[in-house]
Write a structure and sequence with these properties.
Elements: H1 2-23, E1 35-36, E2 38-41, H2 43-46, E3 52-57, E4 63-67, E5 70-74, E6 79-82, E7 90-95, E8 101-105, E9 108-114, E10 120-124, E11 142-146, E12 149-153, E13 158-162, E14 165-169, E15 176-182, E16 185-190, E17 194-199, E18 202-205, E19 217-224, E20 227-232, E21 237-241, E22 246-248, H3 254-260, E23 262-267, E24 273-277, E25 282-285, E26 291-295, E27 306-311, E28 317-321, E29 324-328, E30 334-338, E31 347-353, E32 356-361, E33 365-369, E34 382-383, E35 391-397, E36 400-405, E37 408-413, E38 416-421, E39 428-431, E40 437-442, E41 445-451, E42 456-461, E43 471-476, E44 479-483, E45 488-493, E46 500-505, E47 517-523, E48 526-531, E49 534-539, E50 544-547, H4 549-555, E51 563-568, E52 571-576, E53 579-585, E54 591-594, E55 612-614, E56 619-624, E57 627-632, E58 646-652, E59 666-667, E60 674-679, E61 689-695, E62 709-712, E63 718-727, E64 737-743, H5 751-848, H6 859-873, H7 877-889, H8 893-900, H9 906-916, H10 921-928, H11 932-946, H12 954-959
Parallel strand pairs: 59-64
Antiparallel strand pairs: 1-30, 2-29, 3-4, 4-5, 5-6, 7-8, 8-9, 9-10, 11-12, 12-13, 13-14, 15-16, 16-17, 17-18, 19-20, 20-21, 21-22, 23-24, 24-25, 25-26, 27-28, 28-29, 30-57, 31-32, 32-33, 33-34, 35-36, 36-37, 37-38, 39-40, 40-41, 41-42, 43-44, 44-45, 45-46, 47-48, 48-49, 49-50, 51-52, 52-53, ...
Amino acid sequence: MTTKKYSNGYIFWFCTILFVLMHKGYCQNIIPTGTPFVKQYKKNQYKAGNQNWSLAVDKDGRIYSANTEGLLQFDGQYWRMFPLPNHSTVRSVAMGRDGKIYTGGRGEFGYWTSKAFGNLSYHSLSNLVKDKTYFPNEEIWKIIVDGDRVFFHTFSKSYIWENNAIRTLTANGEPFLFPHQINKQLFFEQLPSGLHELKNDKLIPVKGKDILKDKNVLALLPFDKNTSLIATSRHGLFLLGADGAITPWSVPANQLLSQSQVNNGIYLYDGQYAFGTIQNGVIVINKNGQIIQHINKNNGLQNNTVLSIVKDNQKNIWVGLDNGIDRIEINSPLSFYTDFVGKIGTVYTSIIYQGKIYLGTNKGLFSSEWKGLNNYNSLNFTQIPNSNGQVWTLAIFGDELICGHNDGTFKLINGRLEKISQITGGWIFKPIFGKKNILQGNYTGLSKFMFDGIRLQFIQQFDGIKEPIRFLAQKDNHSFWIGDWGQVQLLGFDPGFQRASIQFSSHQDSIASKRQFTGIYTLENNLVFATDSGFLQFDNIVKRFSFADELNTALGTYKNSNKIIPINTNSYWFIQKTKIAKVDFDSKGKLSIDSNLLSPLQDRMMNNYENILPIENQYYLIGLDDGFAIYRHSDKDQRYKLPLPQISQLINLTSGQAILPSAEFKLSSSDNNLRISFSSPYYSSSPLQYQYYLEGYSDNWSEWSETSYQDFTNLPYGKFQIKIRAKTNTGLTSEIQAFSFTIQYPWYLSWWAKSIYTLAIISLIYLTYKLNLQRERKRQYQARRKWLEEKKVALERETEQKEKEWITLKNQQLEDQLQLKNKELANAALNIVYKNEMLNNLHDELKQLKDAEGNKLSSDELKKINKLIDDAHNDDRDWHIFERSFNESHENFFKKLKQEFPDLVPNDLKLCAYLRLNMSSKEIASLLNISTRGVEIRRYRLRKKLGLPTDKNLSEFLLER
């Protein structure tokens, strides 16, 4: 009967594995060299307790951890914590086929069901326990889901939940260790009596249990059709037969497993097992019991104590540690040797030679034992004595390992370096076709070596070449292209390769002279020149460089590759500043580019010093900044179905609070500023990219982005549907996940608000009518009043106009009077002038008057008459009359002028009056009884007293007064 159980279980297990392989992906043997990529999740990331006692994975790929502070959930992007009702430590977690998540802690157990956006709802089963005498202090250390019944296991009993009732399973007073489920069989270890199988609710001793006495069974795993594998804590591995016989499994891994103290284990795939230990991390073995991987704190784990272990849907290993959670990408085509302590430095070159692997780094030459790719390599690199400094290249010539070093060229003899050339900086070796000669590019030019089939010997350093040589490529039998980043040159040799001369330089070419060169390579039997602007080719006939347009167009962004490494005849690695692509040429010359294979290595190499070493059977060693990676290439596409992305959370951007929508996913109008977070439980060293499309809002799908959320602001009310899809770095795209939600009408658009609006509108119409009626009456009143006011204004304007006309007439009369006065003044002045002229003429005639004898009259005789004439001249009565009349006509002209210019004397005032009347200098001279020259002098003096500038007219100035 037992045999039949094993057989049926095996068939079920075999079919399940086959189905997973067919539908989930393709699995290969684990790479035994290096360490798989380890992703660490520290407690400050998941924000919970240190210890993670148990792990489980749901059908969608979410990870659940039984943590010190509660149940942890991880969906690939976000961690969430769900504490138990009594806030006790969660010790165990298990998944049911119906999606329930079972957990157990101290004095509490039950299950969780899923809600929207990854939320969980807890359902306690503890109230079904009848005897609660010791229950509050009991801890559920393991949970086994067996069909319709669930075992919540403590060290004293198992609580069995079935048909919504709890019953207990005990061991007749003995304590338990852990139960184990394999296929449809359940085993319980009793202390000290040993391993028992549960049959018909009874514990039946296993036939060979005595061999395991006091050995503590920690894992029971499938082995083959009729056998199971038992892992004990400190006593190695055993095999359990279908008949219950137990025998030790004497394999190489036993010693390490026993020393490390096994704590748990899982079956991986293809006959490979992973065991978590208390003291030494995770140990992976194959079906022959050989260690193929050992991951601990020295090479990636946060902690050596593995409290729990599980395998996810992608065959990654997850380990719950005493401090943190780690993911081990055991099924990845990449494994790593990482120099955590900085011992070896950046790897420039590598080679496998005589059972050892050698690494040339910026610190020197290092070596470790190499057991091949089919055996576990616990690498321990030590530095070769006397190798300090940069090691640029490693090459094997015959049985000798040659090292191009910063200090010269060396060969390895008995674990030490022996110098064979003093020329520093051996960057590259290049054999000459059909010759025994080897060329070497170095810091100071070009060297020649000879290889006789046994040993390499330095011959000469070529004269005339003093520039560094990083690139070498043979053009024909007697010429090589050489170069450095600044230029490339065509070098010609004599038939004996003893002399060299430069035949052409890129500086002579208009295109090449402007480029920075990064290498010279043979691609499909053609030489191409890598530059910072794309690949160039050289026309040997016209001696000119040109762009390889067809190649550059086909390569896209990889046209700027700085390195090409051949894989085989038609395949190459193209490297562009640490970005690596595999390029394949078909028979017609068309190429295909795969830039995803080694994308996790981007930015982990040193620019321009990237190196890829083919090892064997499509395995490659890639030098990194802090060690190296082993890559296993496979033509079988290792693909998994990418899980549908999920909505993880809705957040109100305004308040920053998470939104918990109703069952119909209706959001309030205040939740229209949204952050929608999404995730996909797919785990890789390269992050997923997401793309979204919000129907009713977006015009097109968004660009792919690693950002796992999107903000939407001011969404209008109505129905929306967001579509999300995810993509891996390899181009694998998920199906579209659609999520519909509704933003409800704001309160002011509800039915009662609309009723209020209707009443308000009716009231408003009535009020508007009343208001308009009142307004019309007021308008008519105002119109009449306005008419009256306009009438009044018109009368006032008419009156004002008549007043203006009267004033104008009055002003005209005054103006006429003024003009009359001015004429009178002018006439008076002219009369005075005439009088003065008559007196002057009389004076002159008296001077000519003669007596009867014909003699002129004497002065004494004329004196009295002259005095009368002078008195007439000096008589001011005419002036006073003139002054009075002038002031009346010109509004106290003299008074105002005297106030403004107090220095003026009467003669000045007379002159000002005459000038204001616009009289000529001759007339003024007569009035003042002075000469015309005297008038000009008085005018000059008057200008000075008035302070007039030279460009100001004196008469105009006085007229302005």
